[in-house]
Structures are given as C-alpha cells and as structure tokens.
Amino acid sequence: MSPEVAVKEIGPGDLKQRLEAGEEIAILDVREPHELAICKLDNTFHVPLASLPERLAELASYKDRDLVVYCRSGGRSARAAAFLVQQGFRFVYNLRGGILAWSDEVDPTIARY
C-alpha cells in the first residue's frame, strides 16, 4: 500500500455535522481487533489495514459513495485511503487525527489510548 496518492481529509467536526445532517457516509475502521475492544465509533465496519487488499471485494459497494477511513491517529487510515483511491474508489476521506481527534473534538467519552 503506497501513500503517494493525495487523499482528501475530513475533520472530526465536519464528519459529525455531515452525519447529523443525515448524509449517507460509510465509515471504515482499519485498526487492529484489540483496539476495537478499547473504543470505536458507532455504525462503522472493520477491516484491519493488513487485511485490506484481500478483503477489497467486501468494499465494492462503496466504490462510488462517500467513505471515511479512520484509525487511532490518522496514519494507517491515510495509507488505507490512498490504497482505496488507487483501486478506483472515488470519494474516500481520511479522518484527520483519527479516533484520538474524534475524542478531543467531538466525544470526550471515547477512550484515548
């Protein structure tokens, strides 16, 4: 997975506003399973970054829809988002700052780790 592709980003506050406005946005968590036990965002689906290439077919229905990718702090999700763009996904966004930024800016009840 190569990070050379420019990936659009969305901030936690902007994502929250779009979700509250009822926009249909898919949210992909690329963290490891043990991280899900600590905290996660509601209404997301999970594909660990390392599994993304072999599980790409599971995401086919999101190829032409808004798809926000997140991890702990934004690094892994940026790599995942770049990979998805390279695979033809058109509306991919990296959640800037990951779930840590979501905890800071949107929901302080989300555990930090």
Relevant terms:
globular; alpha/beta; Oxidized Rhodanese, domain 1; 5-stranded parallel sheet; 4 helices; about 110 residues; about 15% strand
Task: Walk me through the structure.
The protein is α/β, with parallel strands linked by helices. The chain has a single domain, classed as Oxidized Rhodanese, domain 1. It is 29% helix and 15% strand. The chain is built from 4 helices and 5 strands; from the N terminus they run βαβαββαβα. A 5-stranded parallel β-sheet has the order 1-5-4-2-3. The longest helix is centred in the C-terminal third of the chain and has 12 residues. It is globular, with a radius of gyration of 13 Å. The two termini are 25 Å apart. The model has no long low-confidence stretch (mean pLDDT 94).
Report the top-level CATH class.
Answer: Alpha Beta
Shape: globular
Counted by DSSP, the helix tally is 4
Provide the succession of SSEs: EHEHEEHEH
Question: What is the CATH third-level topology name?
Answer: Oxidized Rhodanese, domain 1
Domain module count: 1
CATH architecture: 3-Layer(aba) Sandwich
At the fourth level of CATH, the homologous superfamily is: Rhodanese-like domain
Overall helicity:
25-40%
Cα separation of the termini: 25 Å
Mean pLDDT over the residues: 94
| Poorly predicted spans | none
Q: Beta-strand level of the residues, as a percent range?
A: 15-25%
Strand order of the largest sheet: 1-5-4-2-3
Most strands sheet:
5 strands, parallel
Counting DSSP E segments of at least 2 residues, the number of strands comes to 5
Q: Specify the structural class.
A: alpha/beta
Radius of gyration: 13 Å
